[in-house]
């Protein structure tokens, strides 16, 4: 049986009691002690601590959730910018080629250069800022950075190819 240590509420003497014992007399000051109410207080304290821990964890969770949301927004913005600039660049350069004009060459090349810059830099930027903690456990996700950089290069590569195919369809 578990022995529970406690102090006498009257004289402060250290007492021990068996679990399941609810009533006793302090051997030092003879005061009668109802363990039940002490136990109840202890239980309330434990619950209070659990609620505090839960609230702290919840605050942590909503912070991670917000970080994840902002990061996702940045990710989709960069993917969209890369695709749109690449599409616009190829369309303008293709148009110049078709019509044998130089009018849209400058903006077209600029758009292609910008798309390439985003293609190279966005995965690194997103990998450095990716929220690396699990929302439920708050623990670090293993390998999140390596996964993110590979995934981002693959997605952006796909977006580049798709935008080139879409631009080419204009000229067929
Ligand atoms: Zn006592």
Short descriptors:
2 domains; 172 residues; two-stranded antiparallel sheet; single chain; 3 helices; mainly alpha; binds zinc ion
Can you give me a brief rundown of this structure?
This protein is mainly α. The chain contains three helices and four strands.
Structure description:
The chain is 67% helix and 9% strand. The radius of gyration is 33 Å and the shape is rod-shaped. The N and C termini lie far apart (86 Å). It is mainly alpha-helical and 172 residues long. The chain has helices spanning 35-99, 105-129, 144-169, and strands at residues 3-7, 14-18, 23-25, 32-34. The strands form two sheets. The chain has a two-stranded antiparallel ribbon with strand order 1-2. Helix 1 (35-99) packs antiparallel against helix 2, helix 1 packs parallel to helix 3 (144-169) and helix 2 (105-129) packs antiparallel against helix 3 (144-169). It folds into two domains: 3-34; 67-169. Zinc ion (ZN) binds at residues 8, 10-11, 13, 26, 28-29, 31.
